[in-house]
Design goal:
The complex is a heterodimer.
Chain A lengths: L3 E4 L2 E5 L4 E7 L6 E7 L5 E8 L4 E4 L2 E6 L4 E6 L8 E9 L2 E4 L3 E6 L1
Parallel strand pairs in A: 2-11
Antiparallel strand pairs in A: 1-3, 3-8, 4-5, 4-9, 6-7, 7-8, 9-10, 9-11
Chain B lengths: L3 E4 L2 E4 L5 E7 L5 E7 L5 E7 L6 E2 L6 E4 L5 E6 L8 E8 L8 E2 L3 E5 L1
Parallel strand pairs in B: 2-11
Antiparallel strand pairs in B: 1-3, 3-8, 4-5, 4-9, 5-6, 7-8, 9-10, 9-11
Classes of the chains: A mainly beta, B mainly beta.
Chain lengths: ~110, ~110
């Protein structure tokens, strides 16, 4: 059974720092991995999708990597801003279903 | 192009009452999903559909039923609501096979008292 874990559960950093969020999964047989952002009381915004054949994807200040063999993905945020404060969720697409981590709550201090 | 919409946005039910949540998408997507999100947890899949007229169980299907009579709509029903079903419900859709990303609705906050 696929399980997805995100560590840490919460992270607080000063504005301007670069940071890395981690996502690990137990079964390497995935189709893709997605990173989402969720603001309090709001829906989900897709940030990046990495296909199983890809190693990384970039969008602006965000870079996501995927290492299927080790069951790991990272989301790198460069030059963090207070507006980046949100909960970041990763999800792996496995057998028609997205299996989700519990998220990392990120706070960027001005 | 509205994307994925959910109706209603909020609802309060008493234990034992029934209700139906409506999800609609205007992107001609084949796949549709219903998730629930509880505090401090990731989303869990309730039911999904890979095309009009098809449905399948996800991780937590008990207490829920679904129907996909039209391609653009996916309905989630609670026949006899229980306090354990208090949650935020998200609907999502996807174009086709697993190479595509899922698009999410804004969520429905349901409270069962």
């Amino acid at each position: 059974k696929q399980e997805v874990t995100q560590i840490p559960a919460a992270l607080s950093v000063p504005e301007g720092e670069n940071l890395v969020l981690n996502c690990s999964f137990t079964d390497s047989a995935i189709y893709n991995l997605q990173w989402f952002r969720q603001d309090p009381g709001k829906g989900l915004t897709s940030l990046l999708l990495i296909q199983s054949s890809q190693r990384e994807q970039t969008s602006g200040r965000l870079n996501a990597s995927l290492d299927k063999s080790s069951g790991r993905s990272t989301l790198y945020i460069a030059a963090s801003q207070p507006g980046d404060s949100a909960t970041y969720l990763c999800a792996v697409d496995s057998n028609y279903q997205l299996i989700w981590g519990a998220g990392t709550k990120l706070i960027i201090k001005p | 192009n509205a994307g994925v919409t959910q109706t209603p946005k909020f609802r309060v039910l008493k234990t034992g009452q029934s209700m139906t949540l409506l999800c609609a998408q205007d992107m001609n997507h084949e796949y549709m999903y219903w998730y629930r999100q509880d505090p401090g947890m990731g989303l869990r899949l309730i039911h999904y559909s890979v095309g009009e007229g098809t449905t399948a169980k996800g991780e937590v299907p008990d207490g829920y039923n679904v129907s996909r009579l039209k391609k653009q709509n996916f309905l989630l029903g609670l026949e006899s609501a229980a306090p354990s079903q208090t949650s935020v419900y998200f609907c999502a859709s996807k174009r086709g096979d697993s190479s595509y990303e899922q698009y999410f609705g804004p969520g429905t906050r349901l409270t069962v008292t």
